[in-house]
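INFO batch 0412 | record 1 of 1 | parsing
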Amino acid sequence: MKKYKDTDYLHVSVRLRAIAHKTAVDSDTLVKIVDSRSVDTAVKLLEEKGLSLSSAVSEGTEGILKRLDKALTDELNKSYSLVTSIIGSSELVTLLKVRYDFQNLKALIKAEKLGISPDSMLVDSGNISMKALQDGFRERDKKLLDGVIESVSEKAIKESSETGDPQKIDLIADKACFEYIMSRSKKSGFDFLSEYFNAKADLTNIMIFVRCRRMGKDTEFFSYALLPYAGAVKLEKLKEYYNRPVEDFYEMLSSTPYRKVFEDFDFENISVSAMESNITEYLNSLVRKMNSVAFGPQVVVGFLLAKENEISNIRIALSAVASGMDPEKAKEKLRA
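INFO prediction complete | emitting tokens
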């Protein structure tokens, strides 16, 4: 049963649709940016859409990508702040931002192990301020993030030290992040959020399957790497097919909602980049489904996820322009 009324989100839905219509950086603009081969021109095109990036290019070319990245992060944060200013504190925003808390946690763990400052690796986009997270990590705060800070930190440090494998830090933190998000999304009453995160977990696990097979990882490593939640593709099913012919695996996927994501692939020569592009498009189709609702919390999440994808594409386009990448190759990297 829904724990919310769609009508409670009527005002915010109308307002966010108007903002998105006015400021969205569409595919045509991204193509113009890539074709311009000029960071200055690209920034001017983006400022026409309301993005404030001119200060990032005013200090010369040295370090420009880092400054642009920071400016784009600030722009994304503005979108989250805007939504919060309209609807107040909400589980909708919390669940979308929590992955940045875990991203920062990974940075803190790695910095501690290496004995370096984490400052350059932290992003000011999570629910927890960078200072509060640093303090909580240092003290192994048992309350921060419902105790996850302490448990993930201790487990990641212990296992990465015992095995000498720094990848353990990412695997442990990523799995804990999904566990945390899935647990809270199921309790939130926002069924469409659970649908989105279930799909993301499934598709992430499928990519883990493909990558581990390509790298020749054994079943034990593959099983350990899997995210702990699944929707239409159960974990036991993935483990069952791991050592079977790859054709059997894709045949199994043909009976899932992700059939079109993986159809027409050459089983013996799978293009990981093409697969990632298809996965992005599938997730974006769920975002478009949210935005197709006349009004409701779906519009709030759809607006923020669309903004996330938009900022990601802008990063790709600006990086391509700044590095002198061939425009056609750059366009292939843009996410649907």
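INFO post-check: The CA atoms of residues 16 and 303 lie 7 Å apart.
INFO record closed
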